[in-house]
Design brief:
Blueprint: H1 3-6, E1 24-27, H2 32-41, H3 57-68, E2 74-78, H4 90-96, E3 99-103, H5 107-116, E4 123-126, H6 138-142, E5 153-156, H7 162-167, E6 176-180, H8 205-214, E7 217-223, E8 226-231, H9 245-248, E9 255-259, E10 265-269, E11 272-279, E12 285-289, H10 314-319, H11 346-357, E13 363-367, H12 379-385, E14 388-393, H13 396-406, E15 412-416, H14 427-433, E16 442-445, H15 451-456, E17 465-469, E18 478-481, H16 494-504, E19 506-511, E20 515-520, H17 534-537, E21 544-548, E22 554-558, E23 561-562, E24 567-568, H18 579-583
Parallel strand pairs: 2-3, 2-5, 3-4, 5-6, 13-14, 13-16, 14-15, 16-17
Antiparallel strand pairs: 1-18, 6-8, 7-8, 9-10, 9-21, 11-12, 17-20, 19-20, 21-22, 23-24
C-alpha cells in the first residue's frame, strides 16, 4: 500500500489504527517538466527508426547525415559482431552505398560477418580486438586501411573499454561518433572503470560526455544506450539548447540505496541485475534480483543503533550543519544557522523563524530531549527567551540529568517515557497529561527512528512549528518511512515528511543537515519562502549512488561509509554476487540470447 493511501487514514476516527506497521517505500515519478526538457533537447529521437539497429539509431543517424550534407561516406563499427544483429552501419552500407571498416575479434561472429557482407564492395574487415596502446590502438589499426583521417562516422561498441579506446584515438577524427555507455547510471555520475582488458563495465554518460568535450565534440543525441557526438564545428546545425547529460537523458531502471541508523542498507527502485539471469524452479528464465539481505556489509548482530558510540563520530561532527547553500537556493533560513546547544545550526534558524512569525515567548515540546543540553533544540528558547515547555526522554540516565537541569524551573515539565503510537503512550496522551496548550508553538520530534509515525498519529494538537529528524542518506526522490516500531531506527525520508506535512496542513520552511522544519499553513506566508519544492530546499548530504555494470559488479559513489557508525566498508563486502559468479557467462554465443547462471534450460 502506498504512503499516500495510508496517510488518508489520518482523517479516520481515533479508534481506528492510524498508521501502518509495514515499511513504506516508493520512488517518485520523474517530474513532467524534466521529461519535457529532455524531449526538447534530445529532439533527434523523433527520427528514430529501426532497420538493423537496436533502439532506432538508424533513423537518427540518417537525419544527422542529412544535416551534415553527407549522402555517401566512410563508416567504422567495432565490435561489428555478425554485421547485422543490432548493427548501426548495415543500413548505411547496404542501403546508401557507404564504404566501411568492420572490426570483430570473435572468430565465430567474424565468419558470419564475412558472409553478411559477401560481394559488398569497399568494405574492409579486421579480425582482432581494439585497445588503447601499441598496435591495438585505433590509429594503428586504421592506418592499415584506406580510411581517411577525417572519415564520417564511427561506432564504438565493445561493452567495456569504449572510453579508453576512443580517448587513445587522436590521429583519426570522425565527423560523428556514436559510443556506448551504461544506461543504468544516473546522468550526474562520472564513472569510468579501471583500464583492464578483462573487465566488462561501460562508462557513464557523463564520463563519455566530458571525454567528448575534451576532444572538441558535442553531444547531439542519446539513443538507447548510445550517445552520439559531432565535431564541435558542426554542433550549431542541430539546434540543441542544452546538451548536458541530465538535460538529454534519464537513466533506465535506476537503483537507489540508503541506510538506517543501525547500519542496515536498503534498496529502492530497480533490483534486477539486468545482465545476469537464472532459471527458477518452474523453469522460467528471469533476471537475478538483489534483496536487501544480499548487500549488507555488517552481520545482523552488529546492526544495532544506540544514540552514542563508544568513540567520537568525527564524520558526523565534520558534516553537521554543512549544507551547501548554493545547492538549496530557497532554503533562505540557512543563512541564520547558529549553535548554542543545537547540532546543525538550528538555534539560529529557529530564532529567525519565530521572529518572522511574531512569536517572542511561547510553549515548546521536545521528544527525545536527552539530557536537556547536548544537541538540544529547545534549551536556548527556555534558558534565554523564557519559553515554557515539556521535555520528554526515554533513557533513564539521560533523563536524570534532564530532570536535575529543570527541577527548579516551574515553567518546564519533564517526563520519563517512550512515546509510541499506541493509545496509552502516544503523543496526544503525553501532551494531555502534561496539560500542554492545544495551540502550542513548537514541537520537536528527535527520536532517531519512529519520528514519522509519532507525528502522523498526533491528532488533538496543531503546533505552529514542527521540527523532525530525517534520514539524511535517503535520495530526494525516494518516499520512505520505516515501519511503526520503537525497535527500529531507520527513520523517514525528506519526501515522506513533506507529504505527511502537507496532508496535516504544514509546509516545509527550512532544513538543516538532518532536520526538517515545518510551519502551519495559516502562518507559512509569514516565513517568506517562495519556492519550497524539495530539491530547492534540501539534498541528502550522505547520499550514496549505486549502479552495476555488465559484469554485475555493484559500484557506489558518494557517501563511502555507514554514517552512524563511521564505518568505511570494503566495496567487495557490498557485492550480491561473488567474483566467480560474476565472471560466469551471461549470454550464449548468440548475441542477445540470455543464459541461466547455473541451470541448463534444455533439461
Amino acid at each position: 500500500m502506498a504512503v499516500v493511501d495510508l496517510l488518508a487514514q489520518l482523517k479516520r476516527p481515533f479508534s481506528r489504527k492510524l498508521v501502518p506497521s509495514e515499511r513504506q517505500l516508493e520512488i517518485a515519478p520523474v517530474r513532467s517538466e524534466v521529461i519535457a526538457a529532455i524531449e526538447r533537447n534530445n529532439h533527434l529521437l523523433q527520427y528514430a527508426k529501426v532497420v538493423t539497429s537496436q533502439d532506432g539509431e538508424d533513423g537518427v543517424i540518417d537525419e544527422i547525415m542529412r544535416r551534415l550534407g553527407i549522402s555517401k561516406g566512410w563508416c567504422v563499427e567495432f565490435g561489428a559482431y555478425d554485421g547485422k544483429t543490432d548493427a548501426n552501419v548495415w543500413n548505411l552500407i547496404h542501403n546508401h552505398g557507404w564504404k566501411g571498416v568492420l572490426i570483430e575479434p570473435f572468430d565465430k561472429a567474424y565468419k558470419v560477418l564475412l558472409e553478411t557482407y559477401a560481394g559488398v564492395p569497399d568494405v574492409h574487415f579486421i579480425n582482432e580486438g581494439v585497445g588503447w596502446e601499441g598496435d591495438s590502438r585505433l590509429d594503428a589499426i586504421f592506418a592499415r586501411t584506406p580510411l581517411p583521417t577525417d572519415f564520417d562516422f564511427m561506432v564504438v561498441d565493445i561493452d567495456g573499454n569504449d572510453f579508453y579506446v576512443w580517448r587513445a584515438c587522436t590521429v583519426y577524427r570522425p565527423k560523428v561518433v556514436m559510443i556506448e555507455f551504461n544506461p543504468f547510471i544516473a546522468p550526474d555520475i562520472h564513472f569510468v572503470k579501471p583500464a583492464e582488458l578483462d573487465q566488462r563495465a561501460s562508462a557513464s554518460l557523463r564520463a563519455v560526455y566530458e571525454l567528448a568535450k575534451a576532444k572538441d565534440y558535442e553531444m547531439v543525441a542519446v539513443v538507447g544506450g548510445n550517445a552520439i557526438f559531432v565535431r564541435k564545428e558542426y554542433f550549431p546545425l542541430f539546434e540543441v539548447a542544452d546538451n548536458r547529460p541530465a538535460s538529454m537523458f534519464q537513466a533506465r531502471w535506476e537503483t537507489k540505496i540508503f541506510q538506517g541508523r543501525d547500519g542496515t542498507l536498503m534498496l529502492a527502485g530497480n533490483r534486477n541485475l539486468v545482465w545476469k539471469h537464472q532459471l527458477d524452479r518452474n523453469g522460467k528464465l528471469g533476471h537475478v534480483q538483489m534483496a536487501d539481505e544480499d548487500i549488507q556489509v555488517l552481520p545482523i548482530g552488529l546492526r544495532v543503533f544506540r544514540p552514542r558510540l563508544s568513540y567520537r563520530n568525527t564524520f558526523l561532527e565534520e558534516w553537521a550543519g554543512r549544507l551547501d547553500r548554493a545547492r538549496v537556493p530557497s532554503n533562505e533560513l540557512l543563512a541564520c544557522q547558529h549553535n548554542i546547544t543545537s547540532e546543525c545550526g538550528e538555534d539560529g534558524v529557529l530564532a529567525q523563524l519565530f521572529e518572522r512569525l511574531g512569536i517572542t515567548k511561547g510553549y515548546c515540546v521536545e521528544v527525545g530531549a536527552f539530557d536537556g543540553t547536548r544537541f538540544s533544540n529547545t534549551r536556548s528558547l527556555i534558558a534565554e527567551r523564557g519559553w515554557r515547555g515539556l521535555l520528554v526522554e526515554k533513557d533513564e540516565t539521560a533523563y536524570a540529568k534532564l530532570r536535575a537541569l529543570y527541577e527548579k524551573n516551574l515553567a518546564v515539565s519533564t517526563v520519563l517515557t517512550e512515546v509510541t503510537t499506541s493509545s496509552g503512550a502516544n503523543l496526544d496522551f503525553v501532551l494531555r497529561n502534561a496539560r500542554a496548550p492545544k495551540n502550542l508553538d513548537f514541537l520537536c520530534i528527535d527520536i532517531e527512528g519512529n519520528d514519522y509515525h509519532v507525528w502522523a498519529s498526533l491528532r488533538g494538537y496543531r503546533p505552529k512549528v514542527v521540527m523532525v529528524d530525517i534520514n539524511s542518506t535517503v535520495p530526494n526522490d525516494v518516499l520512505f518511512a520505516q515501519e511503526d516500531s520503537t525497535a527500529v531506527n531507520h527513520g523517514a525520508s525528506m519526501r515522506a515528511f513533506i507529504q505527511l506535512g502537507r496532508l496535516k496542513g504544514y509546509e516545509l520552511a527550512a532544513a538543516t543537515t538532518w532536520n526538517a522544519i515545518f510551519v502551519r499553513n495559516d502562518l507559512f506566508p509569514l516565513v517568506g519562502v517562495r519556492n519550497n519544492e524539495i530539491d530547492a530546499m534540501y539534498y541528502p548530504v550522505f547520499e550514496m549512488k549505486i549502479f552495476h555494470s555488465i559484469n554485475c559488479f555493484v559500484s557506489t559513489q558518494g557517501c563511502d561509509r555507514l554514517v552512524w557508525h563511521n564505518h568505511v566498508f570494503d566495496p567487495e563486502s557490498l557485492q550480491p554476487l561473488s567474483p566467480k559468479v560474476r565472471a560466469m557467462p551471461f549470454t550464449t554465443e548468440n548475441l542477445g540470447e540470455h543464459v541461466s547462471t547455473f541451470f541448463d534450460p534444455r533439461l
